[in-house]
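Colleagues,

For the teaching module next term, I've prepared a clean inverse folding example: a structure given as C-alpha cells, and then the sequence designed for it. I'd like students to try predicting residues themselves before seeing the answer, so please don't circulate the second half yet.
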C-alpha cells in the first residue's frame, strides 16, 4: 500500500516549486551589469576605457606579490616588485570601475610551490584582507583563482583552489570567488574540468568560462559571427548554465573572455601562425556588439571582452583590442555606443529571430517599462537595405539610429510607419529603435 505523502514533503514540494518559479522570473542583468573588459595592471587606462563599460577584469600576477618564493610574506599594498596596488586599483575605482582580479598563480610552476595548501591559503587571506569589500581599502569586488591553469595537474589545482579560497573566505567573506576557466569535459590546457570543484561548492560564488566564436581550430583559428549555428559559441553557455542549474543552483555564470582579432597586417609567412586568419575591423565591431546582444537573453550574468588594447600583431589574441596602441578601432566606438544606449536597459523579449538571419530584441528601461529600445540586425546580410517590419501593438516609435563605427555621431535612420507597424532597414550593424507606450 502506498502511504499518503507526508505534510513535510508537501511543504518541501511547494517550496521547491515556488523557488523554481522565482528563479524562472529573475530579471536579466542590466547591460551595464553585463558588459565588461579585460585590462592588465599598470597598462590599463581607466579614464579612457570607462566609455565602454564599468566592469574590468585584471590579470593579477601572483608572482609580482610573491616573487619566486611561494612562502614569501606579502607586503600589500606594495607588490614584491614594488607595484602599488592602491594606486592601480584605486585609479580604477576612482573612474567608477568594479574590479575582478584574476589571481594568476600559474607563472610560479607547480613544483616550485613549497607548500601549496599553506602558501596558497596565506596568499588568499592576505589579498582579501588588503582589498576586499570589507577592508579599509575596498578596491576589488571579486577574485578568480587561476586563469587557464592547465600547467597544474587536476590534483594540484584542486589543492590550490581549495586552499586559496579558504584563505579568501577567512580574509573577507564578502569577496566574491569565481572558478578558473572551466570545461564540462576533461581538463585541458585552457580550462579545468568542473569535476575539480566537486564537493567545494561552498568555496565558489560564480562559475567562469572562456568562450570564443571559433569556426575552425588550429591552424587558422578563424572566427565567425556570433549567431552562426555551426558554432559551439552560444551552446557552450547554455550547456554550462544547465550544468550550473543541476550542480550549483543560484550561482551566476560569467564569460570572462570573448573577442575577435582584427589586425591590419597579414599573417607571417612562416611559423605557428602562418595560416592564422583574423577578422576585419568591421566584423570585430559588429560581432562584439552582437555577441553582447545575443548574450543578453542567455542565462549569463557577465561577459568580458578580450582585450582592451593591442599592438597590431597578426596572430591569435595579438590584435583583439578595442584600441590599437591606445587609438580607438571601430569596435571601441561601437561598444561605447552600445553601453551608452542600453546601459540602463535589460533584455525583455525576442521580437524576431531567424537562424543566422534577421534578429530583433526588445530591451526595457530599468524602472520604466514604458520606455523600450528595439535592437534590429541581420546576421549575414552586409548590405544596408534589408527591410524589417515590426508590429507596434499600440506603441510609438520615437527615433532610430545605426551603430556607429567612428567617433562621428550615430547615423539617424528613417522609420517607415503605418497604423500598426514600423519598417526599418537592417544589416550587420544593429539599428536601435526607441519605442514608448504600452
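(Answer key — instructors only)
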Amino acid at each position: 500500500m502506498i502511504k499518503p505523502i507526508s505534510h513535510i514533503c508537501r511543504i518541501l514540494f511547494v517550496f521547491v516549486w515556488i523557488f523554481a518559479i522565482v528563479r524562472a522570473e529573475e530579471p536579466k542583468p542590466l547591460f551595464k551589469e553585463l558588459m565588461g573588459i579585460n585590462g592588465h595592471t599598470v597598462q590599463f587606462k581607466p579614464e579612457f576605457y570607462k566609455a565602454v563599460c564599468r566592469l574590468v577584469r585584471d590579470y593579477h600576477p601572483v608572482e609580482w606579490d610573491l616573487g619566486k618564493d611561494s612562502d614569501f610574506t606579502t607586503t600589500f599594498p606594495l607588490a614584491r616588485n614594488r607595484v602599488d596596488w592602491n594606486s592601480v586599483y584605486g585609479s580604477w575605482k576612482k573612474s567608477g570601475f568594479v574590479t575582478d582580479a584574476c589571481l594568476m598563480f600559474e607563472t610560479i610552476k607547480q613544483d616550485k610551490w613549497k607548500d601549496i595548501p599553506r602558501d596558497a591559503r596565506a596568499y588568499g587571506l592576505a589579498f582579501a584582507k588588503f582589498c576586499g569589500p570589507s577592508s579599509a581599502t575596498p578596491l576589488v569586488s571579486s577574485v578568480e583563482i587561476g586563469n587557464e591553469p592547465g600547467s597544474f595537474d587536476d590534483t594540484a589545482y584542486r589543492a590550490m583552489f581549495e586552499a586559496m579560497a579558504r584563505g579568501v573566505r577567512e580574509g573577507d567573506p564578502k569577496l566574491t570567488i569565481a572558478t578558473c576557466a572551466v570545461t564540462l569535459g576533461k581538463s585541458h590546457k585552457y580550462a579545468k574540468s568542473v569535476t575539480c570543484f566537486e564537493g567545494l561548492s561552498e568555496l565558489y560564488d560564480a562559475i567562469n568560462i572562456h568562450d570564443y566564436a571559433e569556426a575552425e581550430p588550429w591552424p587558422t583559428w578563424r572566427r565567425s559571427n556570433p549567431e552562426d549555428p555551426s558554432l559551439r559559441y552560444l551552446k557552450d553557455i547554455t550547456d554550462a548554465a544547465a550544468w550550473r542549474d543541476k550542480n550549483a543552483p543560484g550561482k551566476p555564470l560569467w564569460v570572462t573572455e570573448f573577442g575577435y582579432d582584427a589586425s591590419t597586417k597579414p599573417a607571417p609567412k612562416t611559423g605557428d601562425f602562418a595560416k592564422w586568419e583574423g577578422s576585419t575591423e568591421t566584423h570585430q565591431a559588429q560581432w562584439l556588439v552582437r555577441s553582447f546582444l545575443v548574450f543578453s537573453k542567455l542565462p549569463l550574468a557577465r561577459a568580458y571582452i578580450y582585450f582592451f588594447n593591442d599592438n597590431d600583431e597578426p596572430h591569435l589574441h595579438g590584435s583583439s583590442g578595442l584600441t590599437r596602441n591606445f587609438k580607438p578601432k571601430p569596435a571601441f566606438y561601437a561598444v561605447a555606443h552600445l553601453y551608452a544606449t542600453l546601459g540602463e536597459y535589460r533584455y525583455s523579449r525576442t521580437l524576431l529571430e531567424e537562424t543566422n538571419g534577421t534578429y530583433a530584441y526588445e530591451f526595457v528601461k530599468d524602472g520604466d517599462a514604458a520606455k523600450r529600445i528595439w535592437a534590429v540586425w541581420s546576421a549575414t546580410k552586409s548590405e544596408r537595405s534589408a527591410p524589417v517590419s515590426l508590429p507596434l501593438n499600440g506603441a510609438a516609435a520615437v527615433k532610430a539610429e545605426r551603430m556607429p563605427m567612428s567617433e562621428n555621431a550615430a547615423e539617424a535612420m528613417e522609420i517607415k510607419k503605418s497604423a500598426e507597424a514600423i519598417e526599418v532597414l537592417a544589416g550587420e550593424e544593429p539599428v536601435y529603435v526607441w519605442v514608448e507606450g504600452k
